[in-house]
Amino acid sequence: MEEFSFFVAHDSPGKNVDKVKVFGRLKEWMERRPARVDRCGGKNGKLVKFNEKKYLNGLQAGGVGEVSLYSERIWGAGEVDEFLNCDFSAGYSSGSELLLSSNAAKLDLQGLIESFWAQEEVVGLCDYAYAYSETQAYGFGYGIGVSMIDDEHPLLWKGHARVGMWRKMQWAGRTDELIRDVYPFNIFSERKIEVLPQSKSQALVQAMERFGESSIHKGFSVWRLDDADLEKARDFLKDSNLLASYLE
Question: pTM score, two decimals?
């Protein structure tokens, strides 16, 4: 199965965001790939042919609640789920989540991360973010907290239960005391680290010092991990009950 790159960013809880401006920035992100916005999310989550004027009117009138943009179809209409029928997608949900995805053959994980940093107004939507590589269906679903089945993640795969845990913490208003999991690339704002309970904040800082490489970039703490260090960091942070995905 083809590998895709995913970048997920969460804004700080309760922040008001102008979705019309977000749309403009995400459309610009898509065009820089370069790719053309071919379809977009319409009412009731259904994908429709992109018409910029109609889409803007829907955002301004509140008829379209979320920003979701998709590049040109790879396969014919109806051959696969429409939201997977593209090399690039960009979205911003009502849960204050930014999700960027790219076919890794066209834009790998490092390139996707660099594309995020290149757009200052998109960076402004970030309080806590992470990036990972996955199969397209599972990786896209994971980004929005929905577990999706594919050949590498069959129905009985034990990891499905972890996918929705972050969403549960969002509903419970507990995201300021947790991070979702540990990933190859992790970004934390100063606010995100400071708002964590002291013991959890200390555990996170210790993990960043012990495993992988950490740095400061544009005011954010950036933590990169290879596969071996990622598992070590995850085991270390499980003990502090910091990882939402592993709460019981």
Answer: 0.94
